[in-house]
Amino acid sequence: MTTLPTGTAAVEFDPFSPVYFDDPYEMYRRLRDEAPAYYSERYGFWAISRWDDVLTAHRDWQTFSSTYGVDLSMLRKGERTGFDSIIMMDPPKHDRLRALVSRVFTPRAVAALEPMIRDVIAGYLDGLDGAGGFDAVADFSGPFPVEIISRMLGVPEGERQQVRHWLDVMLTREPGEIDPSPAGMAAMAEAAAYFHQLVQAKRTDPGDDMLSRLTLVEVDRGDGEMTGLDDVEIAGFATLLGGAGAETVTKLVANAVVLFARNPGQWRLLRDDIDGRIGPAVEEILRYYPPSQYQGRYSVKDTTLHGVTIPAGYPTLLVTGAATRDERAFTDPDRFDITRTPALALGFGYGIHSCLGAALARMESRIAIIEVARRWPTYEIDEAGLRRVHMSNVAGYANVPVHV
Fold this sequence. Notes:
Layout: H1 18-22, H2 25-34, E1 37-40, E2 45-48, H3 51-59, E3 64-65, H4 72-75, H5 93-101, H6 107-112, H7 114-126, E4 133-135, H8 137-141, H9 143-153, H10 160-171, H11 182-204, H12 210-214, E5 218-220, E6 226-228, H13 231-262, H14 264-272, H15 274-288, E7 295-299, E8 303-305, E9 308-310, E10 314-318, H16 320-323, H17 358-375, E11 380-381, E12 387-388, E13 397-399, E14 401-403
Parallel strand pairs: 2-10
Antiparallel strand pairs: 1-2, 3-7, 4-14, 5-6, 7-10, 8-9, 11-14, 12-13
Helix pairs in contact: 7-9, 7-17, 9-10, 9-13, 10-11, 11-13, 13-17, 14-15, 15-17
């Protein structure tokens, strides 16, 4: 075991604490200022929090590997997972498999989905007209994104919302709880079994959907021989895309509802020029409250930042939520401002693991916010009724009561 530097910072970064779950931004400021290369004695991980450092680490997969897992539960085992998920791969294997799935998310392919996306979003909002109030998560931002990605995957109607419920249980953590709960482990097993069975069904009875197409493709495994994807690999893609497609947009749209309620001047700016401002507005929401607060990596060789050596052999968290509020990169970063020139969208990842579905997530978010603005030009939220999720990696609201 590599000897750690002496002296620990007064600030504590605990990603399983009420402070982290409820409002980590003062903690993040201290982390950037006092310990930009931070070591947690309690949990045994390192954390990088400044904008430039996080960007550099995302690009440097040779130092910060993805093959040991994506959260502390996996990373602190210090073993390669052996699980065939694209987010747990480094090049060249990662690049070959990503090239397959990225075809589904080309600009042309995503643009073709717009009519379906509008229909799904309008369908959920139509049911809320005249209600006088609703929960922006339970009634809207929770169900519609998973409906969209599950349709794309080929999940039968009536089974699509279950994907979201499994994911919520899998990601939930109580304070101090690093590993998934027994219920979370059971949900993980159920989701994996479900998608494995669905892939097998698609092989015998294919449809016009992503999983059916993946049963037909071939990939170069690196030896020049083209082979098809097996059922476990395709099920891994489905689990990943179903989860990412549900969680990111769910949190982003709910965050938007809260931020605009708290910043009515920004809401008026958006409504006055909604077509011109909606793109930058989505980017500012993503900067201000990124749904993915950190990305887990594993240091495979020593690297030095700010006079501190992060040694090989440790989980390392790239803290997006801190980086996007770094005053070294942004003027007045704690001010929500949709007129701000959009920065690089770190909230959708960066480097080789940038979000495959980022264009789709942006389109869904834009359409959802536009539709809310057109239906309810004024609204209020019940601040006392707001409830945040307690999840690994993911941050946002579980409940946002709205009065219209």
